[in-house]
Every structure is written in structure tokens, then in C-alpha cells.
Specification:
Strand order of the largest sheet of chain B: 6-7-8-3-9-10-12-11
Shape of chain B: globular
Largest sheet of chain A: none
Strand content of chain A: under 5%
Radius of gyration of chain B: 20 Å
Radius of gyration of chain A: 22 Å
Helix content of chain A: over 70%
Chains: A mainly alpha (282), B alpha/beta (322), C alpha/beta (325)
Low-confidence stretches of chain A: none
Distance between the termini of chain B: 31 Å
Oligomer: heterotrimer
Distance between the termini of chain A: 13 Å
Number of strands of chain B: 12
Structural class of chain A: mainly alpha
Mean pLDDT of chain A: 85
Shape of chain A: elongated
Helix content of chain B: 25-40%
Structural class of chain B: alpha/beta
Chain lengths: 282, 322, 325
Amino acid sequence: MTAAALRHARYVVTENPITLVAFSMLLFLLFLALLGPVLAPYDPLKSDTASTLKPPSARHWFGTDQLGRDMLSRVMVATRLDMAIAFSAVALSFAVGSLAGACAGVFGGWTERIVSRISDTIMAFPLFVLAMGIVAALGNSVFNVILATAIINLPFYARMARAEANVRREAGFVEAARLSGNGTMRVLAVHIYPNCLPPMMVQASLNLGWAMLNAAGLAFIGLGVRPPTPEWGILVAEGTSFILSGEWWIALFPGLALMLAVFCFNLMGDGLRDLIDPRRRT
Amino acid sequence: MATPAPLLSVEDLSVEFRTRDGLVKALDRVSFDVHRGETVGVVGESGSGKSVTAFAVMRILDPAARITGGQVAFDGVDLVAARESELEARRGRDLSMIFQNPRTALNPIRQVGRQIGDVLLRHGGAKRGELRKRAVELLAQVQIPDPERRYWAYPFELSGGMCQRVMIALALACGPALLVADEPTTGLDVTTQAAIMDLIDELARAKRMATLLITHDLGLAALHCERIVVMHAGHVVESAPTAELFASPRHPYTAKLIAATPGPGVSLDELAAIPGGLPDLRGELPACRYSRRCERYAPFCDEPLPLTEVGPRHTVACAKPL
Amino acid sequence: MDTLLEVASVSKRFPVTVKGAPRGSEHFLQAVDDVSFSIGRGECVGLVGESGCGKSTLVKLITRLSDTSDGRIWFDGHDIGTVPAERFARRPERALIQMVFQDPTDGLNPRFTAFDTIADPIRRLGRRAEAGEVAERVSALADMVGLPRELLGRYPHQLSGGQKQRVGIARAVALEPRLLVLDEPTSALDVSVQAVILKLLDSLRRRLGMSYLFVSHDLNVVRLLADRMLVMYLGRIVEMGTVDEVFEGPRHPYTRALLSCVPEPGPAGAGKRIRLSGEPRSPIDPDPNVCRFYGRCPDGIERCAREMPLLRSFGGAHVAACHRA
């Protein structure tokens, strides 16, 4: 089955050039995330007062910032943190949200009422403000940024999962599963839940971009990740004060990196769904 | 006395679909006629191309489809060559269609009476002020009880049978000469089906309208059609007057199809199965697309398929008819 | 005959909200109303009726996917109606009552291969078996239903309608049930495939000694396989008897109308078609004293509006619920 799965993965990726581009970019980003610190030409935290605010050159491809730190190294190393936050937040949100939503869809009654009311409450707030509030209340740490991002995304997954589960609940194969002796929990876990996933994969991928922007946004205003830890949002924040004085490279390159990552995640949505949905497997 | 020219004459119609997996040759040189006032049934199983034929006649095929040959002569005009503006003028006015799933074929967010009014307005069937009156008249004509009130109903408020009646009213609003009915009663109860088919028969007789009935149900075609065209995998294999088709089918597939349909007096053992499956319409196809499933196959079946006239208006596409 | 399934005065009501009704009032949709019948060992009983007659609900009650509002169900002498549907999976009877579904696509899990689908009941309810034994049993079942073994690794979207239905049948007979409920098993299939599946079902029944409850709207098909048949209308049984008795001498006006509307694949028959006017009565809060068919019935009299007709005998196993029969 793995051989077939790999073959299918290859088919999906090669069939649509956009998916191919997106997956290549993702691989590149993952590569950077893993090996960034090793490959970075300079220590991202080491200041070099001799070469502060130098524009991009052969020695420093992305220039240096106000403390003489090499921008290229900082951007490369920041990849790891940003990717980690984005993936963790989405994974957490997806797992909890989809499970809650599926249970709400299948059991109805009080389960559904509770899940719906919690979702509605979360959605009643402007989401970024809610994230700000959570991080401010719980303290500045990477974990709290992940938690805040995950919480504000819960309703989307819960709603989708609930709708999908509701539809599948009446399906013939679910009845057949009950006739075969599957108890309610097994039916939910083995038959209904896995079938709810494919449509949610697109949502998850789009979410990755959003989660990353969220984390960067929080860092930009000083919440969550704090300097000197390299993180794209912080880098952009530090760079904004220098734009007007002409040192454009400090904000631009981290901004571009952020843009590239979000773009890649958005493109990946459909590709991911093709991979997971067996109906597309031929 | 010379037979008058047919109202609809489909000649050598071929249709292809461009799909991800290749070119599907859905129809291959399909030919048949429908005369004024006549009810002709197109019978076949799934994949036979009967619905594609109906859509091709109405020129509402999917954008992925291409008519690669033949012509569809309606009232002297070739619909294949006609411009879209001419087709739009004719559709609804001269030739109409009703579809399989009535509830989904109607606009779900518009009251049914208003939908009928739209058709009337488009083709000048009534003046603006009279639209409602005329629509109510049409609803009454299709035997919808309490038509005044039902004018304001939405499709979801009506039963399947009633929705189908509304669709018939829509189709017949401007008095077309030809009605194309694509599986109009599939999914409806047997008693509702009988009522709907009777309605179509009555209206067709009253207005001298021709009907092209697409169905997989041989029994239904037997009851309501004067002539039957049998299709298999994009080919017309046989066409004949109904009584003659059942009394002496000349194509092996027709005979098998009749023998496979349950009916009174046929026991389970006598029920025939048709071996094999449909050929893959994307690949290389033999001259006779049924030949690979036929027990009468002989090497000369691979030669170009002859169309033999074996009786008055009875043709068979077989090198070795029964 | 030895009785396998006994259904006694079974009813099922669903609470519904009615527009414009006074607040606090309760309203019920009577899906199944006072239904009683039995199925003997090895017997095939046909159940016919049109949409809204309650046959789908009755099927769910018998297969214990849902609970009755009233009445009892006995299976092989055991009362299975009192066990709630959620807990029925643990009962020994679960394996003995199975179902084949109408829509082969809807009835199969799109993420399970044919093998997994057929193996599921064996793994859940069969004796504790090794993986090898399960594989052997699945292969044997595939052979029994005429499904080529190579197709076991495929997903539903890679199979044809007939093949999917075979998978559904293999799954249903995997545990050798005594009662198999067939819910329109061939209506989604082409006529050429239908014959094969019907013959398969017939031979399986004899081979495995099962009883069938064969639900269908196609009376021609019911005639082929069933020994006895029931006709339902708006939740009640209106006529019951052997297939020959009902087809040759229908007593209830609805049965007569139904039979007259069935098209025959032959030169147009001479029989006149009985047309039913109007729409069926509402199944919500039906009046227990008025015959459900009153209003559409061509033979209705005043008595039909004050007294609900009960099933009475017309000789042999033939019963019908009509004052005018």
C-alpha cells in the first residue's frame, strides 16, 4: 500500500504544475527550518558594531541591521520558529476542533450545544484582538502564541467537522458499520471521522498561512516572541523604524520570506486534498 | 401518399467528450427520426448515450463535449450549424426538455408560478400583465390542484410528482412542437409515474406535439411509445415500431434486453443476463460495439457496420441479425 | 412453518413541529402504525409500497437500527425489541440480522477497500480469528458472490455498480445471518446486471438457508423472488398473502391500483390503468378512525371515514384491510 501511496503522491504533484511549485517551496522551507542554523553564514545573534546598517553586498546578501547582525542568517534561522509555530498551532486547532465538531455532529444534543456555544463565543471576538488578549493574559512565550492561535481557529474546524459528520451520519455505510457490530464510538472513529478529513485539508493549509501571519503580527506589536529571538515578525518590526531613513533591506527580506511562506501554504491546499481523498486515487 | 417529412431528423450524429483520461467517443453516427405528433422512445442502459443524444438535440451539451459529425434537422433547420442566438430563441418555444430530477431542475429560490412566467416572457407567450393568469392556467392544465395558491409555492414545498408537473407546464408553456423527456419518471413512485406519463400523453395528443422519451425502462417505453430506438454504447442498434420490436427483435442486444427485464410470466431462471460490460469508450473500438459481448460474434462483425432495413421503419445495425 | 421473525403491533412515531399550531402542543408523524407479520425460516417475504409508506422505517426497526414506539419484535423466540438500538451491537442476534443496501455507492465506506469492507463484520463479530483466517474467509465470500479476487484491493470508486453491490452482499452474508433484509438491492443497477444479482441472491438464500425480507417498489422483481408479500400504505399493512394470491386476486383498492400501474415489457397490455387522484393523506397526527386511503380510494364509502378497516382473511394466507373487499 505504501508503494501505491507514493505513486499516487507523485501523480498528484506532477499532474498540476502549481501543486508542484507549492510542494517544492514547502520542501525548501522545511529544509531551511531544519538546517537553517547550521547553514547560516553568520551567528544570527552576534553583533558586529563595525558593520552596522550595511546594504546588501557580496559579504552580506541581505545586508546587516542596526547591531551589525547579518540579515540573511537571521531570516534563515527565523524560518524554524515561524514554521514551528504555524504547524503546531494548526495541528492543535485541527485536532481539537475536528474532534469536537465530529462529536457534535454525531451525538447532537448537549454535546452539540456546548461545542456550538463555545464556537460562537470565540467567533464573536475580532480574532486578532482575542489572540492579543490571550497572550497578554498568559504571558509572552512561544507556547502561548501557539495556544492563542489554535484557540481562535477552533470554530472553523469545529463547524466544518460538524457539518461533514452530520451528512455522513445518515450514510448507508455508517448503518452497515453498525450492523457489522461497530459500537457508536468505533463508528465515529473509524468510519465517520476519517471521511470528514479530506474537505478539511484545504482549510488546514490555508490556516497555516494565516497562523504564521498571526504569530508574526503578534510579534510585530511586541507580544509573544520577544527580541533578540529571530522571528520574521520581529524582524519586520525592527526594520520599520529604518525604512524612512533609507535602510529598506532590514524590513523587506523578512517580509518577503513571510510572503513566500504564506503563498506556498495557500497553493498547497488543493494538492493536499488530492493526496488524502481516495476518490481521487486512480 | 408520401410520408410527410419528419419533424426531427438526427443523421449520423457523433459526439466526443474531452476528459482527463482521454477522448470519450460517446455517440457514433446516431440516426433516427421523429415525426409530428409521434412518441419515440430512446431506450438503453447507463452509458448507452441516450441522455447525451437528448442533450445534443437540445444543444445543451457540456462544454467538454464536441459534436464531431452529423446533423440535427429540426423543422428544416440544422441545429448543429445554427448560431447560439437562434438556438436560444427556439429552445422553450419550438422544442423543450424535461429532466430527471424535477426538484433540482427547478430554481429552488424562485416560486414555481414565476418560473413559468419567465418562460412566457422570454418567448412572448403572454404579455406582462397576463403572465400570472396564463401561468395559473398552465398549472391547472397539468392537473395541479389549487393552482391559484400553488403559483406562489417554492419547489421544496411540493412533492416530486408535483414538481414534475410544474416542469411539464414550464416546458409546454409556449406550445413547442417537440418535447424531449429525459427519464422524467425515474425516482417517482409507480402510481405517480403512471399519472405523469398519462398527462404527457394527453397533452401531446391535444397539441399534436411530438415526444422523444429517454428511458432505461423498457416497459415504460412499451406503454407510451409508438416507436422505440434501442441504443448501446453510443450506437443505435435497432429502431422499430413498438409492437414489432417486442414481437420480433432483430438485434441480439435488443432480444437480450427484453429477456432480462422482469415481467409477468417470466421466472427467475428464464431471466437473461447480458454478459460482459460496456466497452471502454476511450480506446480503440470495434465496428460493432456490442460484438465483444455477443454470442453470435463472427469475424465479419469487425467490418463496417451495415444498417439493414428489415421491415417498414424497422432498421437494425447488425451484420448477422436474428 | 417455523417462525424466525415475529413482528407484533409495531409502531413508530416521530415528534414533529407543525407550523401555526398552538404552543406546547405535541404532534407526531406516524411512520409505522400497528404493523404485524411474521417471516418463517427459509422464507422470502416481499415488502412493497411507495414513498412515505413507512417501509424504510420498518426496515430500521427490524434491523434494530432504531427503536420502536410500541409493539414487540421476536427473533427466533427472543424478544429483541426491548434492547435499545445503541446496545444491540453487543447482542448475539446482531450477527444474525443483516442488510443489503439500495445504493451501492452510499453503502460502502469510500476509504475502505473491498477487502476491508467485507472483513469488517468478521473482525467485529466473528470468532477471534487470525489475520490469515480472515483473509481466507473474505476470499471465500468473494468467490461465493462472484466477485473476482483481484478486485478485493480496490476502492469503491474503482468498482462498477454491480461489483459494489456484490461487495455489499458479501459483507451482509459474511456472518451467515438467518435474516437478510434487502432494501431495493437492484434498483440502482442496470437491467443486465440486475438479473445476475437477483439470481445470486436467490441461490445464496437456498445455499445458506436464510430468510429474506425483500423490499422493493418494483413489483415485477418481487414476484420473481418472494413467496409471500406485504403491501404497505401510509404506515399500515393494507394487504398480505402469497405472491400468487395478491397478484392474481388483489383485494385492496390500493393494491389493485398499484398492480395496474406496473409497466410490462411487451406489446402494450390491454389492462386499464386505475388512476389515483389527489395526494396521500398527511401522516402527521392521523385520525385513527379514518382509513388512510380514504379520499383517494375509488371505492370509498361513508363507513371508511368512521371506522378504520382491519385486516381480515380471504382464504389461505391472504388478508386485506378494506370494508369493500
